[in-house]
Amino acid sequence: MTLAERVSKAVDAAPIVDLHTHLFAPQFGALNLWGVDELLTYHYLVAEALRAAPKVTPEAFFARDKAAQADLVWEALFVRRSPLSEATAGVATVLDAFGLDPAAKDLREARAFFARRRVEEHVEDVLRLAGVAALAMTNDPTDPAERAVWESGAAPDPRFHAALRLDRLVASNDLASELDRWIARMRPRYLAISVNEVSPPPRAVLDACRAHDLPFAMMIGVRRAVNPRLGVAGDGVSTADLVPLERLAADNPDVRFLVTTLARENTHGLCVVARKFANVLPFGCWWFMNNPSLIEETTMMRLEMLGPTFVPQHSDARVLDQLIYKWRHTRRSIARALTRRYEAMPVPPTDAQIERDARALMGGIAGEWLGA
Ligand code: HDL
Ligand code: ZN
After folding, report:
1. DSSP strand pairing (216-220 vs 236-237)
2. What is the DSSP letter of 311?
3. Which of 92, 119, 261, 324 is deepest in the core (most CB within 10 A)?
């Protein structure tokens, strides 16, 4: 076998620990999204369909029901055009993985297939096909539907770990008591927030991280609602100043920071910050970075500057079935970058060394930080 083949084999076999998703365990009922209509109304595809069919206004699109929205997306992006974007290629990968025709003229076959699926078996099949051993959800107690599930006493499938999302919770009047309440109820593996610019979080947040030994995840560079007409598809990106992140890491050496940046221009700077501060762990190729060309570039940069001491990827999946494509596609990019770094070694690695490194990168390091 060639080096590339040996690396791909090890990366494909390495169990995944998915550090950030918007998935919900089956115990969350309708919040657990799956099936072809959910796949096709993923906000990435909505934005792409509205570009491809500009005569359809966002308002007219959102006035349709979900099936009619999915039909429009299918026609615009899969029938009239080839699925060349990462999000469309992903749907094609998922359909193909289930033996469905990604070039079908309509969604009848796919809808009939998913209609026959039972959610419990579907969850098992998707996790198996994607090679995902554990994942973190995104849990926001200010969301009434999610809050109701937690207050019902539901116990999530143990492979679905909680992550307490603070974007809205930080506005609480008594943040400290809200944090205590939801940390006790959810047992989250980390606290998380998305920001446009880096600024110190409220003191109560870092106090809670220390008190419960929880990492704090900062997702930096998002600009919300640059086009409000697109709803959840309307967010944009900006390059952030990372000097405040250095200060945060320096001022809180006993707090572990999980960090991902949305702008390609911040990738290199984050690697440098991580070299200066061992309590900063770069993770994933977030959102607009989650494309094969950028995953390979980013993973190369991180391997060159950090060695295998970071988490190359998270899926950010919102629909259960997306785990299949997001991890199949990303494994290819990570394997390519890893192979290129091994080629730079004067003595090639053994199969055992390749397996050790692949397992650390695909799940080991994330698992340590997730406590999974
Ligand atoms: O803030 C986030 O966690 C982002 O991932 C947003 O949810 C975004 O809409 C998304 O789904 N990106 O993949
Ligand atoms: Zn996300």
Report:
1. unpaired
2. B
3. 261
**Tens-place pLDDT, residues 137-159:** 999 999 999 999 999 999 999 99
246/276 Cα distance (integer angstroms): 8
Task: Tell me, using a 6 A CB cutoff, whether residue 68 lines ligand 1.
Answer: no
Ligand 1 lined by 194 (C-beta under 6 Å): yes
Cα separations in angstroms, 135 against 52, 90, 96, 122, 185: 33, 19, 24, 16, 18
The pLDDT tens digits for 242-251 are 999 999 999 9
Calculate Rg over the CA atoms of the chain: 21
The rounded Å distance from CA 172 to ligand 1 centre is 22
Residue 284, amino acid: G
Strands 222-223 and 236-237: antiparallel
Residue of 223, 237, 291, 316 best suited for mutating to test ligand 1, as the one with most atoms within 8 Å of CB = 316
What does the block give as tokens for 187?
A: 């047992």
**Is residue 226 scored above 90 in pLDDT?**
yes
Q: Are 267 and 291 in contact (CB under 8 A)?
A: no
Q: What is the pTM of this model?
A: 0.98
Q: Cα(226)–Cα(204) distance, rounded to whole angstroms?
A: 30
> Measured between alpha carbons, how far is 76 from 316 in angstroms, rounded to an integer?
24
Q: How far apart are CA 164 and CA 139, in angstroms?
A: 5
CA distance 36 to 120: 17
* CA distances to 60, 144, 156, 248, 351 from 68, in Å: 11, 27, 32, 47, 50
| 206-236 burial: b if 16+ Cβ within 10 Å, else e | bebbeeeebbbbbbbbbeeeeeeebeebbbe
Mean pLDDT for the stretch of residues 240-261: 98
Please give the domain boundaries of the chain with CATH numbers for all domains. 3-32+116-370 (3.20.20.140), 36-115 (1.10.2020.10)
Q: How far is the CA of 344 from the centre of ligand 2 (A)?
A: 34
Q: What is the pLDDT of residue 371?
A: 82
Q: Whose CA is nearest to atom 11 of ligand 1?
A: 316
**Which two three-digit tokens encode residue 163?**
């992550």
